[in-house]
Amino acid sequence: MPEAVPARDTPTLYVLLPDRSRQSVRISETPFFMGRGGETGNHLQLSDPRISRQCAAITSEMGQYFVEDRGHRGGIFVNGKKVDRYALADGDKVTFGIENSYEIIFRASSETVPSIQSMLTRIGSISSVEAPSSGLGRLNLLLEATSLLHSDVPLDAALSTMLDHAIAMTNADRGILLEGSGSGSLTVRAARSSGGKAVPANGLNPSQTALNQALERRSAVITEDLNQADFALQAAQSIVAQSLRAVVAIPLIARVGPTKSEAGPRPGRILGALYLDSRRPTAFSKLDRQILDALAVEAASILDNAHLVEQERQRQRLEQEINIAREIQQALIPHGFRDFPYFAVTGIHTPCHAVGGDYFDVFPLGDDRTAILVADVSGKGIGAALLTTMLQGALSAMSLGTDPARVLNHINRFLCEHSEVGRYATMFFGILDPSGQLQFINAGHPSPLILRRGEVSELINEGSFPIGLIPEAEFVTKEAVLEPGDTLSLFSDGVTEAMDANEQLFGVSRLMEALSGQHHTPLDQLQKQVLASIENFTKGADQTDDITLLLVRYRPAERGE
Predict the structure, then answer these.
(1) Strands (E), 383-499
(2) Which of 19, 161, 393, 541 has the fewest CB atoms within 10 Å, i.e. is most exposed?
(3) Strand arrangement of the beta sheet that strand 56-61 belongs to
(4) Between β-strands 12-16 and 103-107, what pairing exists: parallel, antiparallel or unpaired?
(5) Which residues contact 517 (CB under 8 A, 6 or more apart)?
(6) String of b and e for 467-505 (b: at least 16 CB within 10 Å)?
(7) Cβ atoms of 245 and 279 closer than 8 Å
(8) Are 250 and 296 a contacting pair, CB within 8 Å?
């Protein structure tokens, strides 16, 4: 029977859909099931055919939530690490081992300091000596500040108003919100003085001693009177120079829950610090401290969420740029070949990422000869795609009559002279004429296979250097002769190095077996058969490299035609 989850502890799943829209789902009971479709009782239905029907579940034990793999073929990942069962912490990201699919952010509701609601109870216990109206006024300021932080007001304006409220609640002279950077340094995000006035960042000199103590201890440093504080604070140069008498420094820490092996919460990363000071002794009551702690937690949460929003915006910008790169790359790769009088051709390129480092091309050279090539740039992603586009443009210029060996030698020297590019490419470049004469240059690429009268053999039996790797490399043209009906199979190493679940390679021998005896098979069908052989071998394992296959069948025209 499902376990009911108390409403006050109900966590939420923030779901990023493949189309980049968003939704949120509360975990109202456990086990909470996730998977494709609703016929298996899934509470969260994931509309992706690659996700298993019984995919994952979230369970609860002693107040701790766990995500469990319930049989998803691609595995369940938390923060990029594959797991079978994992204790979820606030902010953990759950994914399913496939690209462009669902991403799920787990948000807990555990409290590490008194909540705003608990302050309503605490305010009722304020003694008459402590001026109830003052306490209620402070609570009202706190509620106003936190409501601003969670509103649609621009972040900097909300943080400035929050500082104004903190100054008013504590009778401080000024307040500063400092934001942490990746290097560990703090930069001023907002600064205010009493009366709601902005303070120029270049005129600030907050006590580094107090801030360092707060960050090192990961707890608040609050002094009611610096004359009674520890010597380090009393002697701090900025405190002496500015005649400060009271200082508050509270670290803003991201909340993180426990892992499987931990009894308590893990230390969260430092997001920044809330700093207040005054030139007169400020009597911080116990309620003041609790209010400041609660306000600091709210500010930390907002800063953390602001970072997530900025990361999401950067991700969307990068995704948009990648989509543009993919569209350009796909537009440059041939889709449907023109008719050639003396050969038939078909090809396919399947990148393992949005953009790839493989490409192929077939283009006439203007003198009744045709260029045929396959290239593979080292690495993957946008960097590899940029270099493939450059190579494609340079090689296509040979349609104007340039010698291929001269062009490849020039490209090799160019890339080696610009070693900061950090890329090289393997390539097979061939020129086929109507008589079956094939002039070719092989630059470190896997040898093409020839299917001749049902038998398969390799065209090349010696190695060579890739382009852009060895400055002294010299590429020379070699020759072969195709017979009528011969099929030339050009491919990238993503074909032969495709791996199954046991990390076994598909290999050249399996490719030769897939081609063997298929000399009468139409090229489109032969291409499908080869790809099916690869898919059957890998059995759904992730594609780890670009797959490119180009099939060319020599068919000279009959005499007299």
Answers:
(1) 425-432, 437-443, 449-452, 455-458, 478-481, 487-491
(2) 19
(3) 44-45, 32-35, 56-61, 64-69, 85-87
(4) antiparallel
(5) 454
(6) bbbeeebebeeeebebeeebbbbbbbbbbbebbeeeeee
(7) yes
(8) yes
508: left (phi over 0), alpha (psi -120 to 50) or beta: alpha
Is the separation of the CB atoms in 178 and 272 below 8 Å?
yes
**Omega of the bond prior to 31 within 30 degrees of 0, cis?**
yes
Helix intervals (H) in 21-154 = 116-124, 132-149
Task: Supply the pTM of this predicted model.
Answer: 0.48
> Two tokens at 438?
């094939």
Contacts of 420 (CB under 8 A, 6+ apart): none
The structure tokens 């304006």 sit at 157
Helix H or strand E encompassing 376: strand 370-377
**Residue 289 phi/psi, 5° resolution?**
-65, -40
Look up residue 2 and give its amino acid: P
Displacement of CA 209 from its chain's centroid (Å)? 37
* Strand-pair partners of 217: none
Q: Tens of pLDDT along the chain (561 residues)?
A: 455 444 445 788 888 888 766 677 888 888 899 988 776 788 888 888 888 888 899 998 888 899 999 888 888 999 888 999 999 988 788 999 888 888 898 887 534 334 444 444 444 443 333 343 455 555 555 555 555 555 555 667 777 877 887 788 777 888 888 888 766 788 888 899 888 888 887 777 888 888 888 888 888 777 765 555 555 555 555 555 566 777 888 888 876 544 444 444 455 778 888 888 887 765 556 556 667 777 777 777 777 776 676 677 777 777 776 666 666 666 666 666 777 889 999 998 887 765 567 778 888 887 788 888 888 877 666 666 666 666 666 666 565 566 777 777 777 777 776 665 567 788 898 999 999 999 998 988 999 999 999 999 999 877 788 888 888 888 888 999 999 999 999 999 889 988 888 888 999 999 999 999 999 999 999 999 999 999 999 886 777 788 899 999 999 865 434
- Please give the Cα distance from 158 to 307 (Å, whole number): 15
Whether residue 373 contacts residue 361, with contact meaning beta carbons closer than 8 Å, is answered with: yes
Cα 260 to its chain centre, rounded Å, is 25
End-to-end CA distance of the chain: 80
Residues 142, 147: Cα–Cα separation, whole Å: 9
Tokens 């801030």 correspond to: 211
Rounded CA gap, 437 and 432, in Å? Answer: 6
Q: Which amino acid appears at position 488 of this protein?
A: L
Q: List phi, psi (to 5°) of 510.
A: -70, -35
CA distance 296 to 251: 8
What domains lie within the chain, and their CATH numbers? Answer: 3-110 (2.60.200.20), 116-310 (3.30.450.40), 335-554 (3.60.40.10)
